[in-house]
User: What shape does this take?
Amino acid sequence: MKKQLYIQTLGCAMNVRDSEHLVAELKEEYDLTFNLEEADLILINTCSVREKPVHKLFSEVGYFNKVKKEGAKIGVCGCTASHLGEEIIKKAPYVSFVLGARNVSKIKEVIKKEGAVEVDITNDESTYAFNDFRSNPYKALINISIGCDKKCTFCIVPNTRGEEISIPPELILREVKKAVEDGAKEIFLLGQNVNNYGRRFSDKERRIDFSDLLRMVSEVEGVERIRFTSPHPLHMDDKFLKEFATNPKVCKSIHMPLQSGSSRILKLMKRGYTKEWFLDRAFKIREMAKGVSISTDIIVGFPGESEKDFLETLEVVEKVKFEQIFSFKYSPRPLTPAKDYPNQVPDEVASKRLTTLQELHHKQLDELAKKEQGKVYEVYFEELKPNGYVAGRSDNNKIVKVKGSEELLGEIKKVKITQAKRLLLEGEVIG
Ligand code: 5AD
Ligand code: SF4
Assistant: This one.
């Protein structure tokens, strides 16, 4: 019998894909288990973008150590592994090894070395051909780049995932073809900064950009939908907007991380764009891609953020009417310039701003929900839900559930909306 592997994943879609790669590399020796107590190897794949998940890491490994079976190993992987390195083993000596976010391909080596710490953020895995494993057969996550070259002053990621390197297009296309052969109709392209694709390859030769890549992926037979995350508003040039809007395979849903609506704060964040540029791009996208959904990330309470700056963020939210907002209180992170900036915003002020922002967003979502009744969406079904429901996503990324069973899974159907809540629509299949 094979050994048993338990894996817990925190953080973003990149981490979800890294966990799939970890499982893939180990699959000859290990089967996946959801039962912690029977696992021979317990992995936690961590996030360090805010302080909370870092705290969670230590409480989780403490718990693993209590309930694990005799002789089972615990390994810490991912972004916090990258930035804390051996400190993790010092603080939690029952951890067997630490494997950084850019060192996933070394998993088989580190499990053999008690106390191993592999956290080299210059390691180049851009041409490494990982073994195959997908947790979702309908939607294939595919990395197109590793690392991030942006130096946003609040963000720890350049220190956990290193410099940006694009994965060669032929490797990406090979993955796409394989995923389609295995039954996936949707391809989800991943990178810290996807629309900067092509800036640097490890062999320094090729010259294609993200718009070219979208076109190439869409030409692979069997691909019906393409999504991607995360793009950067700075790189949303006209060529990209045109490809996004006119390529029918590219889903009409886009993440545009605003972070702040104040150009002064955006400058302190080193985001590279102004409020005006952001609004111009968002309005152009709405105009060119009818029915598009725009989601965003917003940080409140960045050092130096005044009431006036915050009101500018609200103004952008009023104008763009995002379909989804991921909002966060600023969290000072090690190795980032902003943690040493003057005028750190008191927690009560940041909390109040977060509530105000969320209230405005909820009001907007309620307005949007009222307009959903009777609309017809093409829904790609991917998940069974309790009480005889099946859920999927519309082209513009709305979650839609209908009464139904397995036979809808993996199918794209027309659905008429009969009931609408903030982030969940219910409907009936009409064709
Ligand atoms: N504090 C709060 N939020 C942060 N993010 C990144 N770094 C921080 C930080 N130090 C948010 C950004 C980013 C999202 C993934 O996490 O909004 O887009
Ligand atoms: Fe978290 Fe960022 Fe690492 Fe993703 S890349 S796991 S969001 S720190």
Notes: The radius of gyration is 22 Å. Residues 11-12, 14-15, 47-49, 78-79, 101, 157, 160-161 surround iron/sulfur cluster (ligand 2) (CB under 6 Å). The chain has four domains: 3-118, 125-251, 254-370, 376-429. The chain has a mean pLDDT of 96.
